[in-house]
Design goal:
With 211 residues, the chain is an alpha+beta fold. The protein has a domain of 147 residues. The chain has 2 helices and 10 strands; from the N terminus they run αββββββββαββ. A hairpin with a 5-residue loop joins strand 9 and strand 10. The protein is elongated.
Length: 211
């Protein structure tokens, strides 16, 4: 075959060379995409864990502040098998302010922890629910979110809170803490459960109900 003037050896590529080049490019592209996907998953996981930790810390601080100054804590009550409630009353408020009621609710269906407050009165203006944490679950089916510790045993009423934040990456942060109500005693009315039904014989802050 005669070579025309001006023809060069690199004037084109063969089909085999093109296939090889594309194969190499696909290998490099797959490596790069794998690194990008791995990096994205790491960022998503770290963000989810940080968010979960922030929620549990926020819940801890609020429980610590409110239970610490409570003068009565109801024994927790479960409604419809999915929502657990606990109410507490705080008389250690600012001068001129009414005694305050606080109600916590853990919903195992949507995994939310919410709270609302109102003045302790016959017809109070009940505050709206505020979600403190989401995507939560209890430690186990046998260990509820709220566990009451009677003053008859501890000299002060206590409330144990056990919750675990779940993340899409499978990692989690947990809250397992016991808060003591310093203004309660063995004489606090909500301490008694003489009929052993799991609820305080005399309850406080029940005006808002347990929806």
């Amino acid at each position: 075959m005669r070579r025309l003037p001006g023809d060069r050896d690199d004037a084109g590529v063969t089909l085999v060379e093109l296939v090889v080049a594309m194969s190499v490019f696909l290998v490099v592209l797959s490596v790069v995409m794998g690194a990008v996907v791995s990096s994205t998953r790491t960022v998503v996981s770290a963000t989810a864990v940080a968010e979960s930790a922030d929620q549990t810390q926020r819940a801890y601080r609020r429980f610590d502040r409110e239970v610490r100054y409570a003068d009565a804590v109801n024994r927790p009550t479960t409604v419809s098998g999915t929502k657990q409630y606990v109410e507490l009353r705080t008389s250690a408020v600012a001068v001129g302010q009414p005694v305050r009621c606080t109600q916590w609710r853990y919903d195992s269906v949507d995994g939310t922890l919410a709270v609302r407050t109102w003045p302790d009165a016959t017809t109070p203006a009940v505050g709206a629910w505020t979600t403190v944490a989401a995507r939560l679950r209890t430690g186990s089916a046998a260990l509820p979110a709220f566990t009451f510790l009677p003053a008859a045993t501890n000299q002060r009423q206590g409330l144990r809170v056990v919750l675990q934040g779940s993340t899409t990456a499978g990692r989690s942060t947990s809250l397992d803490a016991t808060f003591m109500a310093r203004n309660t005693t063995t004489a606090t009315a909500t301490d008694l459960d003489n009929n052993n039904d799991g609820a305080s014989d005399t309850q406080v802050c029940t005006q808002a109900g347990r929806p």
